[in-house]
Amino acid sequence: MSTLGVNCYKPGGSEFEEIERLLDLVGELNSMHAAAAFVQGYRMGALMITEVYCG
After folding, report:
1. Distance (Å, rounded) from C-alpha 29 to C-alpha 34?
2. 12-50 pLDDT, tens digit each
3. CA-based Rg of the chain, rounded to a whole angstrom?
4. Nearest-angstrom CA–CA distance, 11 and 22
5. HEC profile for the chain?
6. CA 16, CA 12: separation in Å to the nearest integer?
7. How many CA atoms lie within 13 A of 48 on its CB side?
8. Is the pTM value of this prediction over 0.90?
9. What span, in angstroms and rounded, lies between the C-alpha atoms of 18 and 5?
10. CB 1 within 8 Å of CB 7
């Protein structure tokens, strides 16, 4: 036990690789979400500009 009373678990080789793979997938998902949000915002902005200029 550490001084804080928390047990420290250290994953083995295959568990560490699995955690690393999951973290990579989370990063990829975040990138996809950011790209989709950008496209949606761009479209909304273009529609607003069209509405302003075309009435």
Report:
1. 9
2. 889 989 999 999 999 999 999 999 999 999 999 999 999
3. 23
4. 14
5. CCCCCCCCCCCCHHHHHHHHHHHHHHHHHHHHHHHHHHHHHHHHHHHHHHHHHHC
6. 6
7. 6
8. no
9. 27
10. yes
